[in-house]
Amino acid sequence: MSIIDQLTIRPFTPEDLDSCLEIFDSNMPMDVLPNERGPFKEEVEQQQFDYFIVEDANGTAVACGGFHRPSATLCWGLVRRSHHRQYVGSFLLRERLLLLHEARGDVTVKLDTTQHARPFFERFGFITIREEMDHYGPGMHRFDMELKLDETCVNRLNSMLLG
Ligand SMILES: CC(C)(COP(=O)(O)OP(=O)(O)OC[C@H]1O[C@@H](n2cnc3c(N)ncnc32)[C@H](O)[C@@H]1OP(=O)(O)O)[C@@H](O)C(=O)NCCC(=O)NCCS
Q1: Considering its fold, how many domains does the chain have in total?
Q2: Distances (CA, A) of 48 to 44, 67, 83
Q3: CATH number of the structural domain spanning residue 22
Q4: 113 CB less than 6 Å from ligand 1?
């Protein structure tokens, strides 16, 4: 059985904040920067968007991520570093896109990310529409990406992780 079969996703609750910060810290400074920690904590704590927790079979939070529903923008998708490259990020992304499609129907999904995660999103069909060098900090570039989310895309997402 793959780890994906054992993952579940549920809405964030205030009790999850420490786990989210732990997940954030596990990715610092390689993928997220110390100066982003304050805004991350504030935005998640104030629930400025729909935010979700991915748990493994033991109930451990292994990833978190969300979206801003009105603008269909994905935000703060983070996998615990010890769990990278085990398809947790794919699960989190698929679930968010399916939830967003349920909520908004066919829509253009947006996100911004770094040069490190850009290839991951390209695998799902996101394309880069804008880039800015050193936007997040020295050596940390910003890529604005988009995906047209429609029924075809949803069917592909559904089958992608099922094998
Ligand atoms: C980007 C991130 C979400 C990917 O999650 P993950 O669980 O490690 O990725 P998965 O295991 O689901 O990867 C699926 C496939 O994409 C590939 N992949 C994953 N991350 C990749 C990357 N950074 N570059 C290229 N390929 C990548 C995997 O190798 C895998 O390919 P395979 O099927 O050939 O084995 C995770 O690395 C992360 O949380 N990074 C830090 C935070 C971040 O940058 N978030 C991005 C938005 S703010």
Answers
A1: 1
A2: 6, 9, 26
A3: 3.40.630.30
A4: yes
